[in-house]
Each structure stands twice: as structure tokens, then as C-alpha cells.
Amino acid sequence: MKILSAAQIRALDQATIQAEGITSVELMERAAAAFTEWLLEKLAAHPQREVHVFCGPGNNGGDGLAAARLLHLAGQAVRVWLLPAARHSADFTANHQRLPSEVPCIELDAYQLPELSSSAVLVDALFGTGLNRPLTGVAAAVVHYLNNSSAPVVAVDMPSGLLTDAPQPKSSPVVCAHYTISFELPKLAFLLPQNADYVGQWELVSIGLNTTVIHKTPVDNYYTDLKLLTNRLPARQRFAHKGTYGHALLLGGSYGKIGAAVLAAQACLHSGVGLLTLAVPAVGYTVAQTAVPEAMALPDVGQDYIGELPNLKGYSVVAIGPGLGQQPDTLRVLEQLLRTCPAPLVLDADALNLLGSNRHLLALLPPDTILTPHPKEFERLTQPAHDDYHRLELLRAFCARHRCYVVLKGAYTCIGTPTGTLYFNSTGNPGMATGGSGDVLTGVVAALCAQGLAPLDAALLAVYAHGRAGDLGAQQIGQMGLTAGIIAAHLGPALEELTTPPTF
């Protein structure tokens, strides 16, 4: 699914109007109808709740006015509050004129804002995506008023005051919505941690925007969904054997952190790898043999940490990092691996921390290496980010410079590519914020690389399946009870959902 800029969204609206021979008011009616349907479904259990719609002077206000009319026609108690303005958009005016006289419509006064019950529902239709500067005056006062209310706030398309695809000015007032109902495609702003308190829970509703135009619109940001992943994971072959699906080498673990390597190994095995060799320090040998009997355990010469690089011949992929530690001998192993590894590489955890402390080694990264940092680990590889948008710029630059793929972990894990295209993941839940979850992801990436998938496909599928496995686990035991081991156990069903069956 493509992520369009604010300018591209406006162009898409116009292209849909032209292609379908409709008016902008008719397209606005579609948006209002889709929003109203969503809201009425939420209100079905509480039909007595009054809805207060706060409308700005532009097209977002026109959406709000149209929604107010539709809510009224559906029998819902509704009241409209208008932001004072010298000028209004044509579509706002058209919908203002269509508003039934029975619907109270009152102009807002910054000094006499209405007192509203906590049982009311507040609809933010002030500005949407049409804003390019901070709010001031009455508009700012209304935003502060909405944010201080104890009633739930639902934003139409975009919380007012929030910029669609640029950093937010400091101290700029923004509506803190509980829900944001957007149209057709996600906005980049929805996917960034710094905007979480503004966006709340966001959902998409379709308004029939022209699919041909969407297909032709060039973008460098995508939201990963099932459609995007179609045909990337082939079905298992009837006459396949363990050699068909590759042999992965996983180097990890140190004294007190053998569990990280075990979790990565279990995830690798649950993700379809044919063979797995788990290289651990001697202290972890018994643990590895016991906890992961399906893997071949390869004890290192070092007692408490890995200090020697195994023979790399015959491996389809090499992954290093979970629980690795940062000993000087381990650093030498990593450098030797970067210089000599003939197979695809996956780097995580302490392997990334070692790189961050020894940045000269970044020049040794083989092309198409996959790195899986969380934001702090990525910061050690680059520099502190001013904001989430700056972090994305750093991500693009890093991937281009080192010709690598970076899986930047988070609520909407972002995959950076050498071409500059970014992919934001759509699966997962807060219960996955638990120790070992990242180690599990490393195992999935390694397994898919071992099976011969291209690095981009391996990263996309691994991140999606990892999140989906977390969702499946949470469905059974709840988010609070989710552990890394449970995520690993659900990887098989998650990947099965992505498998492409033979065509008929």
C-alpha cells in the first residue's frame, strides 16, 4: 500500500474527480458517508450519546458538515460548532447550505467555549491535511479545549494541527485524538512515534479513490500489507528435503545471555530453515543441545564468549549478534566475518553495538547485508536524530551508503533499502515489547535468507510474519502475557498465511 504526501493526496482527489466525472462535493459526500458509517457503528451500543462536530472553514470542515447531516438523518443527536473565518471553501459552503435547519449550528467563541459532557463524542473536522502552519488564535484555543475535554475525540482524516509529512513545529497546538479515521491510504505521520499521542488509534475507510492514479503515482514510502507480499514466499515442494531450504549458521550467546541465541535459533527453525548450526561459547553448549535439539550445536573455544570464527563453508546464510557480548576477541571474530563471509549476512544486537563502537568496520559490510537495529542501536551506527523524520533521512542515507538493508524495529518497523525506498510494517502489537522479541526476528530473517529469498523479500516477509505471530499469540493469551518464546511458536502459522499456493 502506497503512502502519499499531502500534495499527492490532493492530486489524487482531483484525478478521481476528473476520471469519474464527479464533483468535489460528491467526492466529499463519499468521505462523509464512510466516516459516518464508522462512527455510527461505534455508537450503536450507545445511541443516546450526543455528537459535537467542530468544523473549520476549509474542506475538512466540509467533511464535518456533511457527516453532521448524515448523522442527523440517521437519527443521531448532533450539534455543529463553526470556527469563525472570513472565507470558506466552496465545498464547505455547499455542505453548510445542505445542513438541515434542525441541526444546531453555532459559531465558536474563544472566550465562551461550550461545556460538554464526558458522555459526548467530539469530532475534529477543523483542518485535516490542509494545514501548513501552526495554529493560533481561536483555532489554537479550540484545540486546547478539545484536548482538555474528558470526552473521546475522533479526527476526520488527520488530527488538526498535525502536519502530514513534515516535522511538527515545537509548541504547535495539535488535537490529541483518540481515533483518527483516514481515507483510502495511510499518512506517514501516523507511523512515527512522535505523533502517537496525536493520532491515537487510526483506521482507514475507502472512498473509491482512483486505483489507476494510485498505481501510477511514484512514492518512496510503502505500508506493507498482504497485497504487497503476494507471490514472495513460494509453497513448500512435495519432494523437497532439508537441503532444499538452506543451512543457516547462527553465532550468538555469552555467559548469562545464551537464551538470546536459543530464541533466535528456535525462531529460525520455526521459519522453515532446512538445517541450523548454532555456534555458542562452551558455557552454552549443554543449553543449546537441550533447548534446541533440532539444531547442531557448535561449541566455541572460548568458555564464556565467542572468540573464534567457524569454518564458513557450506552455509547459506550467517547471522550474528543475539546475546553475543562485546569482548575484544568477539570483535575480531566479527571483523573476520565481515572480511571473509561468502554467504548473506544478518547482523543484530551486540554485532551492531560492536559496529557502532568501531565504525571503521562499516566499510567492510558486504552488499545486501541485513541489519536489524532498534532505534538506539541505529543511533550508535549513525548519529542522534533530531526527530522521527530526520531518523528516516538518516536511514535512507545509511542504506544507500553501505548498500545494505536496515530493519529499524518499532511499532511500525521500517525497512530501509539501498534505493531509498522505505517499507513500514502493518502487523504486531505492544505486547511484543518484551525481551527476546528482537532475537526472534533475527532468526526469521536468517531462515528466509537461507531458503534463497532476496534480501528485500526476506526482510519484508520476516518482519510481517514476526508481527503476525505476535498478533496470533496475543489472541490466545493477551498482550500482557506475550513472550518471545510464544512469538516464535506462532511463526509457522504466520508464514503459512503468506505462502503462495501453486496456481490452478
Automatic annotation (TrEMBL):
<feature type="binding site">
    <location>
        <begin position="59"/>
        <end position="63"/>
    </location>
    <ligand>
        <name>(6S)-NADPHX</name>
    </ligand>
</feature>
<feature type="binding site">
    <location>
        <position position="260"/>
    </location>
    <ligand>
        <name>(6S)-NADPHX</name>
    </ligand>
</feature>
<feature type="binding site">
    <location>
        <position position="124"/>
    </location>
    <ligand>
        <name>K(+)</name>
    </ligand>
</feature>
<dbReference type="InterPro" id="IPR000631">
    <property type="entry name" value="CARKD"/>
</dbReference>
<feature type="domain" description="YjeF N-terminal">
    <location>
        <begin position="9"/>
        <end position="215"/>
    </location>
</feature>
<protein>
    <recommendedName>
        <fullName>Bifunctional NAD(P)H-hydrate repair enzyme</fullName>
        <ecNumber>4.2.1.136</ecNumber>
        <ecNumber>5.1.99.6</ecNumber>
    </recommendedName>
</protein>
<feature type="binding site">
    <location>
        <position position="439"/>
    </location>
    <ligand>
        <name>(6S)-NADPHX</name>
    </ligand>
</feature>
<keyword id="KW-0521">NADP</keyword>
<dbReference type="InterPro" id="IPR004443">
    <property type="entry name" value="YjeF_N_dom"/>
</dbReference>
<feature type="binding site">
    <location>
        <begin position="409"/>
        <end position="413"/>
    </location>
    <ligand>
        <name>AMP</name>
    </ligand>
</feature>
<keyword id="KW-0511">Multifunctional enzyme</keyword>
<comment type="function">
    <text>Bifunctional enzyme that catalyzes the epimerization of the S- and R-forms of NAD(P)HX and the dehydration of the S-form of NAD(P)HX at the expense of ADP, which is converted to AMP. This allows the repair of both epimers of NAD(P)HX, a damaged form of NAD(P)H that is a result of enzymatic or heat-dependent hydration.</text>
</comment>
<dbReference type="Pfam" id="PF01256">
    <property type="entry name" value="Carb_kinase"/>
</dbReference>
<comment type="similarity">
    <text>Belongs to the NnrE/AIBP family.</text>
</comment>
<feature type="binding site">
    <location>
        <position position="374"/>
    </location>
    <ligand>
        <name>(6S)-NADPHX</name>
    </ligand>
</feature>
<keyword id="KW-0520">NAD</keyword>
<comment type="subunit">
    <text>Homotetramer.</text>
</comment>
<dbReference type="InterPro" id="IPR029056">
    <property type="entry name" value="Ribokinase-like"/>
</dbReference>
<feature type="binding site">
    <location>
        <position position="60"/>
    </location>
    <ligand>
        <name>K(+)</name>
    </ligand>
</feature>
<dbReference type="Pfam" id="PF03853">
    <property type="entry name" value="YjeF_N"/>
</dbReference>
<feature type="binding site">
    <location>
        <position position="438"/>
    </location>
    <ligand>
        <name>AMP</name>
    </ligand>
</feature>
<dbReference type="InterPro" id="IPR030677">
    <property type="entry name" value="Nnr"/>
</dbReference>
<feature type="binding site">
    <location>
        <position position="323"/>
    </location>
    <ligand>
        <name>(6S)-NADPHX</name>
    </ligand>
</feature>
<dbReference type="InterPro" id="IPR036652">
    <property type="entry name" value="YjeF_N_dom_sf"/>
</dbReference>
<keyword id="KW-0067">ATP-binding</keyword>
<dbReference type="GO" id="GO:0052855">
    <property type="term" value="F:ADP-dependent NAD(P)H-hydrate dehydratase activity"/>
</dbReference>
<comment type="similarity">
    <text>In the N-terminal section; belongs to the NnrE/AIBP family.</text>
</comment>
<dbReference type="GO" id="GO:0046496">
    <property type="term" value="P:nicotinamide nucleotide metabolic process"/>
</dbReference>
<keyword id="KW-0479">Metal-binding</keyword>
<feature type="binding site">
    <location>
        <position position="157"/>
    </location>
    <ligand>
        <name>(6S)-NADPHX</name>
    </ligand>
</feature>
<keyword id="KW-0456">Lyase</keyword>
<feature type="binding site">
    <location>
        <begin position="128"/>
        <end position="134"/>
    </location>
    <ligand>
        <name>(6S)-NADPHX</name>
    </ligand>
</feature>
<dbReference type="GO" id="GO:0005524">
    <property type="term" value="F:ATP binding"/>
</dbReference>
<feature type="domain" description="YjeF C-terminal">
    <location>
        <begin position="225"/>
        <end position="498"/>
    </location>
</feature>
<dbReference type="InterPro" id="IPR017953">
    <property type="entry name" value="Carbohydrate_kinase_pred_CS"/>
</dbReference>
<feature type="binding site">
    <location>
        <position position="160"/>
    </location>
    <ligand>
        <name>K(+)</name>
    </ligand>
</feature>
<dbReference type="GO" id="GO:0052856">
    <property type="term" value="F:NAD(P)HX epimerase activity"/>
</dbReference>
<keyword id="KW-0547">Nucleotide-binding</keyword>
<keyword id="KW-0413">Isomerase</keyword>
<dbReference type="GO" id="GO:0110051">
    <property type="term" value="P:metabolite repair"/>
</dbReference>
<keyword id="KW-0630">Potassium</keyword>
<dbReference type="GO" id="GO:0046872">
    <property type="term" value="F:metal ion binding"/>
</dbReference>
